[in-house]
Design goal:
elongated
Length: about 350
């Protein structure tokens, strides 16, 4: 449990909530219901074993923070609890609710034990994969999916590792892993990342099952530069061999000559390859407890000053942008030039 003030609001609440959900209890010493709620919240924090952090804010001493949050949620009474996730206030409740009702509230925002364990296993698997220990990485990812079937990154990482292995058995397994993604890859509400992994996987499986030899494809293209079907197949073959940039180079040849060909098949596969190569946004590093700072701030920094000289409180946290990948950026530029 931590006490929140204007000085540590950014570091210990906004920045820290990008690592773990934080429930802010706004209370006052004179408030009877606050005294009833406090021990219940403290018991729940212990029960959840680190899956959320309890923070407390004295409304009498920290009137600016309490006032802004009350105005934001349209609340005029205490105890008032606000859930912070990802550096943002996302939900709240008012009053001394019983523990069971609060558990229902927490269930909307706090990960389960399985989800937390799965996330840790995904991180371990990614580290093993970087070291070339793909067998251990696959085992961890499979276990992570068993603990949390909704862990997308475990699913994406597994598909990527199986594509890299490239054996018939690995591709069959990848298709099974990808099956839950397919409903999200089609229809009116297509999700970009699931759709990308499904498209790349289907391209590789298709060329492995029915593709022509490399020499045959090269001869077909040499005879006819506009043999787009051969170029698309050659790009898929490059993908099957783990050569993403060569695949995109071949697809660019189609896009530059006829970007609308075959319902933009070349562009769609090109974009899918870029998406599968792009790493998800990492969580920012957790700040040291009690130290101001966090993403975008300097150590020891206080909230910025308004024109009248008073501290200016920013409720929303700052987001740290991940470093760019030069290869991905270069191929994004090539696609942009080919399209426009």
């Amino acid at each position: 449990m931590i006490d929140i003030t204007l000085e540590n609001f950014e570091s210990d609440l906004l920045a820290a909530s990008q690592q773990v959900p934080i429930l802010l209890d706004i209370w006052a010493p004179w408030c009877g219901p606050c005294k009833q709620l406090g021990p219940v919240l403290e018991g729940l924090e212990a029960e959840y074993q680190g899956r959320f952090t309890l923070a407390k804010l004295n409304a009498d001493e920290q009137q600016e923070i309490a006032g802004q949050l009350s105005e934001m949620f349209g609340v005029r009474s205490i105890p008032f609890c606000v859930m912070f996730v990802g550096g943002q206030p996302v939900d709240g409740f008012v009053g001394a609710l019983p523990a069971e009702q609060i558990r229902g509230f927490l269930a909307k925002h706090v990960p389960t034990e399985g989800e937390v364990a799965a996330e840790a296993e995904v991180a371990q698997a990614e580290a093993l994969a970087e070291e070339g220990q793909t067998g251990g990485a696959v085992d961890l990812l499979l276990d992570a999916l068993e603990k949390d079937p909704n862990n997308d990154e475990a699913r994406f990482d597994l598909i990527a590792l199986m594509l890299a292995e490239g054996s018939d058995n690995a591709l069959q397994h990848a298709q099974l892993v990808a099956e839950p993604l397919r409903p999200r890859a089609t229809g009116l509400l297509v999700e970009a990342r699931p759709a990308a992994f499904v498209r790349v996987l289907d391209a590789v499986v298709g060329v492995r099952a029915n593709g022509r030899p490399l020499s045959t494809l090269q001869e077909a293209i040499a005879a006819n530069k506009r043999d787009f079907a051969a170029r698309l197949e050659l790009a898929s073959l490059h993908l099957a061999l783990g050569r993403q940039t060569e695949a995109m180079d071949e697809l660019l040849e189609v896009i530059m000559r006829d970007k609308a060909w075959n319902d933009e098949a070349a562009r769609k596969l090109y974009v899918a390859i870029l998406e599968t190569m792009t790493q998800p946004q990492p969580k920012p590093a957790a700040p040291a407890p009690g130290k101001a700072g966090g993403p975008g701030a300097h150590p020891g920094a206080h909230p910025s000053a308004a024109p009248d000289g008073k501290p200016k409180l920013e409720i929303a946290g700052k987001v740290e942008v991940a470093g760019a990948d030069p290869v991905i950026d270069a191929y994004r530029r090539k696609l942009s030039m080919a399209l426009f």
